[in-house]
Amino acid sequence: VRHLHAFAREVELTIPEWEYAIQFLTRVGQRCDDERQEFILLSDVLGMSMLTETISNRKFGVATESTVLGPFHVVESPVRSLGDTIDLVGTGTPCVITGRVVSVDGSPIPGATLDVWQANDQGFYDVQQPDVQPRTNGRGLFTADANGEFWFRTIVPSYYPIPTDGPVGELLIATGRHAFRPAHIHFIVTAPGHRDLTTHIFVAGSEYIESDTVFAVKKSLVVDFEEVTDPARAEEWKVGTVPFRHADFEIVMQPEARG
Ligand code: BEZ
Ligand code: FE
Predict the structure, then answer these.
(1) Single pTM value for the model
(2) Using an 8 Å Cβ cutoff, are 155 and 102 in contact?
(3) pLDDT for the residue 259
(4) How far apart are CA 221 and CA 173, in angstroms?
(5) Pocket test for ligand 1, best of 41, 115, 214 (most atoms within 8 A of CB)
(6) Are 148 and 108 in contact (CB under 8 A)?
């Protein structure tokens, strides 16, 4: 309350401004339902989600950094086997993701689970295009093997705009801001004895990588999706064609606090 009053004094808040703020927040609330949370979107574009993430995770030295959850983790991801594809459509640039889940001391975490979801090559999640994409396209729940290793096939996701058909979209227009997020793949990683990790990997070189509208890019999460032209590797990874892309990264989990 002290901060709120200080703000009103600082800007010499007028009654029309106060009324506009009340109306705006009312409309944000009215835009919320079971599938859409406009208040979280507002928090995201104001940088509050990322600031809160950063405050609560800054004490975890070498562990993989977290980032925002976002509004599209609304469908349970189907259980898939290592090596499966999460692309149920077959357009876009094929891509193989490989990696390893380890603890902060470098020891592998067998059986860690990775819940993965991403937009397609046009920048849409399955739930945004129920008539175009099969439900659970771009989603999978994987379990790392005995060495903590995981791999799956997909397509390179596209950058995309956050939903702009509500009051948050108005806010972006009124303040001259774009609505785009750089290309990324979401992960929630869980492992016994470790803190759950909600994060993304970002496609290096993607449009908007320097200006994510929700401020969620952290340098350590930007990964090269390198081009592979060797047909032997395409065969090994069951990718139909060359060239394709390959991204590899390590996920370092923070042990749960004891006691
Ligand atoms: C997302 O990456 O899915 C997302 C995150 C924040 C706001 C909108 C979308
Ligand atoms: Fe996303």
Answers:
(1) 0.94
(2) no
(3) 54
(4) 28
(5) 214
(6) yes
DSSP 219: G
Asked if residue 210 lies in contact with residue 219, where contact means CB atoms within 8 angstroms, the answer is no
DSSP E strands, 74-231: 94-103, 113-118, 139-143, 149-155, 160-161, 180-181, 184-190, 197-203, 222-223, 226-228
Low-confidence stretches of the chain (pLDDT beneath 50): none
Q: CA geometry: angle at 241 spanning 235 and 246, to 5°?
A: 75
What was the pLDDT predicted at 258?
Answer: 67
Residue 210 has a pLDDT of: 97
CA distance linking residue 64 with residue 250, whole number of Å: 8
- Of 128, 162, 185, which is best to mutate to test ligand 1, by the most ligand atoms within 8 angstroms of its C-beta? 162
Cα dist from 228 to 65, 88, 150, 157, 189, whole Å: 27, 22, 19, 17, 27
- 252's enclosing H/E stretch is strand 244-253
Local structure of residue 108 (DSSP, 8 states): B
Residue nearest to ligand 1 atom 9, measured at CA: 70
Letter for the amino acid at 116?
V
Question: Do residues 70 and 186 lie in contact, with contact meaning Cβ atoms separated by under 8 Å?
Answer: yes
Nearest ligand, measured from the Cα of 73: 1
DSSP category for residue 221: G
Rounded-to-5 percentages of helix, strand, coil across the chain: 25, 25, 50
CA of 202 to the centre of ligand 2 (A): 10
